[in-house]
Each structure stands twice: as structure tokens, then as C-alpha cells.
Automatic annotation (TrEMBL):
Name recorded for this polypeptide: DUF4191 domain-containing protein
UniProt KW Lipid biosynthesis keyword: no
Segments traversing the membrane: 33-53, 59-78
Family annotation (InterPro entries): DUF4191
Top-level taxon: Bacteria
The organism's taxonomic lineage, starting at the top: Bacteria, Bacillati, Actinomycetota, Actinomycetes, Kitasatosporales
Species, as recorded: Streptomyces flavalbus
Keyword tags: Membrane, Transmembrane, Transmembrane helix
Amino acid sequence: MARKETAADAANPGRLKQIALTYKMTRKADKKIGLVLAAVGIVTFGVFLAIGFLIGHPIYLGILGLLLAFLATAIVFGRRAERAAFGQMEGQPGAAAAVLDNIGRGWTTTPAVAMNRSQDVVHRAVGKPGIVLVAEGNPNRVKSLLAAEKKKMNRIVADVPVHDLIVGNGEGQVELKKLRTTMLKLPRVLSGPQITATNDRLRALGDLMSNMPLPKGPMPKGMRMPRGGPKSR
């Protein structure tokens, strides 16, 4: 029992530190975050307190308003923090890989299954919708990478649906902040055993970057593939 309490006490400072760090990072991109959160909390609490006085139960409604004020503030903070994070990642090579890495349970993601020296890259995710190829980079160049990878998938796993998405803000592209939602909305057609079998078959192929370390998250701008390195397939 004492050990559980000690672990909980140790975890709380970590959570608070993480929240503080997230707030600082969000504030760099969203200067009004403090004012917005304060306004949401005060208005929510004020509305419930006012209703409490009107119906003759200010204490009960005040407590409820306080709890809902914390909840509303947390929801708004989470959304604005997410928006700020996507804003900072958008346009950077590897941003889509960072989103795929956090897509959730039931998905197996492999970053950079195809790449060229200009940092145009194709990532792969396998889940209940089948195989999803996510491309990021120059729209004109990345289409050839995507087409080649999709052709290979159709040849190796012809019985599995293959979807392709291009991350960007242009017509027919998917915004980075909507990538996860778009993938989760795809029709689910594979069962658990089918997903496992598909992953096993793809794993046997090996990936373009299997012998080359790839930093997690967005890669720094200006970084180029070394000469003589892997080429697009």
C-alpha cells in the first residue's frame, strides 16, 4: 500500500511538470493562451454561480461550476495545445511520421519505406482498413514515389486494400492535423489475424531505411540524403 502511494506521489510532479512544459511550448505559438484559459474558467464558474443564486443554491452550483470550469479549461487547453503542436510541425519533413507514431492501438507504422534525396517520403501504416501509404513532400515528385510503392503493395499483398494519402494543404491532399482522423474513418475490412499476416509478409520485404537510423519526429530542414544512399523505389 505504501509503495503504491509513493509511486502516485512520484508520478504527480511528473504530470505537473509535463503540463507546465506543454503550456510553455503552446504559449510560444499561441500568445493568448493564458487569457483564453482564464476567460473560459471565469465565465464557466460565473455562469453556474449566477444560476445558483437565482435558484437559491449558490453553494451547490458554485461547487459544480468550479469543477466544470476546470474541465472546460482542460478541454480548451488540450485543443489549443494540439493545434499549436501541429502548427509547429506542419511543413517539416517527418511530421507525418510523428503523427502516425501516435495514431493509437491496432496500427503498425513503418516510417520512410520510400524516400528520395529531396526528402520526399512515403510512410506505411497497417491496420483494420488495410495498408495506408502516407506521402509528404513536393506534390509533383511524391506522386511517383507513392505510385511505385502502391504498385509494389498490390503485387505483394494483392488481397489487402491499399489506400494512399498525400499530406498537404492543396486540393486532394490531407492536412496534417486531419491525418489521424482521416485514417480512423477509413472502412475497416481486416480482422486481427489478417493484420498480423499482412505485417509478417511486409516485414519479410524489409524497408528502405532498415539499415539507416532515422530520427523520430520531424527532421531538421535542410537535411539531405547522402550521395550513394538509398534511392526511391
